Amino acid sequence: MPLDTDSRDWLRFSLVPGVGARRQLALLRAFGTPAAALAASPVALADTLPPSLLDAWCTQNATVAGVERALDWLSAPDHFLLALGDADYPPQLLDLPDPPVVLYLKGRRELLGHAAVSIVGSRNATVQGVQNAEAFAAALSHAGLVVVSGQAAGIDAAAHRGGLAGPGSTIAVVGTGLDRVYPASNRTLAHQIAGQGLIVSEFALGTEPKAGHFPQRNRIIAALSLGTLVVEATLGSGSLITARQALELGREIFAIPGSIHAPQARGCHSLIKQGARLVDAAEDILQELDWQARLAPVSASRAATTAENGLERGAEEMQVLDAMGFDPVDLDALVARSGLTADALCAILLGFELSGDVAVLPGGRWQRLGK
Question: What is the three-class DSSP state of 15?
């Protein structure tokens, strides 16, 4: 993508080492434009920048290599630099006290202008949690909403897969430069998102993953969305940071409940106690957001799927599903709950495993999936 002089100024302005978003915004308030701030004298800058940063700002010696690297990256198709002064800068990001002055984009830039819901949760997700995240994301995407998440392992990855399954697609907001993929296990998924959705970062090219980057990128996830759904989260989860940031921005908060014995459910339960909307279907989110025009096809599809599944299952199969509940369970417990023999149960469980109704867990346990 060719850059005009103004865009080059934004790039130079954003890459001075040590000058973060808050100071960049202060410079823009003081001088009006990146070009004016870049040309300002040390005396004029003294009220905005501390002495420790004045030399780096005035010389910009460390910025030259970063600018050249960015220019090379931006020459590729579907690579963009979006600046705070651009007409299509997402207005919802202006709700942040420290909106990023530039964003690096890879993929479908226009998705930033679409209505979105974020889905976040544990990296160490349960089988049920992954299935829930993907199913909710697919339903929201089919309803025309963009699914936003952070491209992490677990719930984030499942949310992106679900978003890609529908026309709404997905946006990944990452905590590295866009020439890096983290975690590496999501490399194939990242390529799919770049091709069909959008990947966004405020971090310069070459930026490696650091612990502090992920809470920072969470504020963008929260701000881009009409609401945030937390699928699974421990009490110390970064997903709760995203939920808190969304709440501070006046966005809706949704949470899926889980087993009282599961650590991954405790964060969701805490949010629900604090007033988050308990949801057990994507329709709950669509109703809360007043997305009525899109809701009827989703509900009809779900009803048809439920009816189809019910016709395919006999009385014993339904008996086993009822006996399983939705928590992990072993064979002995199923024998006691269902009254069936172990041989009969094993045959039914094998059928469920092949149909995707049940997941096999370590330790000889099974868990019913949300079908």
Answer: coil
